[in-house]
Every structure is written in C-alpha cells, then in structure tokens.
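Ticket closed. Logging final result for Peptidase M20 domain-containing protein 2.
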Amino acid sequence: MDNEVKINEKRKIEEAVDLIEKDLRDIAMKIHANPELGFEEYKAVEWLTGYLKEQGFTIEKNVANLETAFIGTWEGEPGGPTIGILAEYDALPGIGHACGHNIIGTSAVGAAVALKNAYPYLKGKIKVIGTPAEEGGGGKIYMCDDGVFNDLDAAMMTHPKDRTMVLRGGLACIRAVFKFYGKESHAASAPENGISALDAMINSFVAINGLREYFTDDVRVHGIITNGGEAPNVVPGYSEASFIIRASTRKNLIGVKEKVYNAVKGSSLAVGATCEIEEGLLYAERNNNVTLAHLYQRNLELQGITVYDPPKQGGVGSSDIGNVGQIVPTIHPYIRIGDAGTHTLEFTEATKSEGGMQGLTQAAKAMAMTTYDLCTDTEALEQMKEEFSLWKTNN
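Final structure:
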C-alpha cells in the first residue's frame, strides 16, 4: 500500500477520535471524580460499557467470575485478526487516580469506537477488555487463568506518564505477608515468659537487608510493618509485615524469594517464634513485542509526538500486563501527560488536566491506528506473530 494512501487512511481514524473527544473527556472526568478501588469499580464499568453499547458493541460482564471485568466486542468483516485493547479503571487508596487509569480505560474505549466508526467494514474483531484491580489485585492474572486472552492475536493498552515511551520493561514480582507468632507476657515483670513476635519481624528486616549485597541489580525487596504489637508493656505475641519481592524474570524471582523466605524463617526460629507466609499472585515480567511497539511508535510520530528511550537501568515497576504478554503479543506503551510522577497527588491532578485529556486522545488515536495496521497489513501481523513464537520457543 502506498505510504501516502495509508497516512490518509489513518487521518480518517484521527478525525473519528476527534469527533468523539468530548464524550471521552466526559467519561474520563467522571471516573476521575468517582475513584473506586480494585474489584469495586462498578460506576466506571457502567460508564465504559454503557458508551460501548451505545456505539454498537456487544457487552459481556462478570468475565472470569470478576464482577467488574467486562468485554465489549465489535466485529467487522470476517477473516481478520482479533485485537484486544485493554482497559484499566481502578484507583489508589487515598490519592484516587494517581496512576491515570481513568485515562487508560477511556482511551481504550475511544480507540475501539473510533476505529469502528472510521472503518465499519474492516476485516477484524475488536475486543475492549476491562481488567479490574491492576493496583495490587491482579485482575489480569485471574483473567489469564480463565483463558480470556487466549483467542487474541495481539493485546495493547496505553499508560499515562511523564515521558512517552513504547518499550519500557516491567519486573516480575510477588507479594508476601509474613505473620509472626510468639507469646504474650508482661514486658517488665515477666519478660522471660514471653516470645516476641516483633523481634522475629525486626530480625527478619535485618536479615533481608543483609542479603542485598548478594542480589543482582534487578532485584527489589521492600516491605512495611502492618502490625507491631498492641502495647509497649506487653511482649508482642503477634506481628505482621507485608513485602513485595521483584526480579527481572519469574525464574530469577523464585531464587530471590526462597532466600528471603529462609531469612524470615531463620529470624523467627532464632527467638523461638513461628512464622506463617501468605503468598500472593505471581506477576510475570513484561514481554514487549518489538514489532508491535514499532507500529505503535510510528503512529505516535504520525501525530507529531516524540518518543523517548526507556531508562537503561531501574525506573520500572511491575504490572499484571506481564502475565498477558506471556500468552499473546502485547505492548504497554506510555504517553506523556505532564511532569509529575505516578502515584503522587500531583499526578492525580495531571490525570484530569488538559495535558491528561490530550494524552487520552493521543493514546486513543495511536491504539486505533495500530489496530488498523494489524487488520490491514498481513506482513506486519505475521512478523509480530513470528517474533512472539520465537520468544515462546526460547522461554
């Protein structure tokens, strides 16, 4: 296809996004003004699915037995690929949409609706997949286990940030709650009769810190005390800490996790306490499909947006999008909406600012155009699939 012709076809998609921009802004601002925590995003789901239904999408709710998970589907002409555009819409406790999920969810809906409106006879199926509880709840992991992403040819979403990037990575991680059990006693008159669960926990922190010298640079271990006892004159019979353990890959994470767990168990044994470990969901490392990312980058650049390289070291967290990327070619690019860093009150403000709304529109356009590429460019689609197959073979 002639490059100029293709650019003109994509301009039609941009115009389709512009035509619904007010609708998208209204939805994003309503979600922002009504922040809901993970697995409780009932209002956001109604606003997003309601708009999709108005625009001719079929809606499935309670996906994977999650009340706030949904799929909105539109199919053009048969014979094309099935593309998933992922929506997030949960907020953070206390600081609301400080990760910009009001933008993520709405831009996904906008991309799908605009593409349908611009090319109603497109060969392909578009699924807007609503994934709840990214902030620690691991909604996508439950959906992966239920096979929600198995029929997709590709998956994508766009995250707001302070820098536009298409290939930023993500660490594998696991959450663990350490519960320490000792024996209460009067801390002054009979301390010898007590076993301090708090000492077991404090020793665990010290032991974990002692391991850091022997971790590789990709490893991150960080925790907080969630229960340190009830009164200073009572030897604590119970204490609790919550940790997140991260590494570059799931394989590396398993080894790090075992070292941390052994340090905690040994610290408990040293004071005569016992420890119970409650392990959370395993978040996989991010597997960015480079072919797909480059398609997306070109569609950002078509809008005049500069794309930057990700940090060479550090600067990454973890997300359940990593688990999706183990199943299907996936990207998780970022769009700049301002200077503030995520998970701050300043970013909460940015996600309802003019910069935030511009980022929403830019993300919707880029995802719609990238989906259009996959539905119209057989060579690009096959190259993306071949890259993923090679990755699977080597992993």
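The radius of gyration is 23 Å. No further action required.
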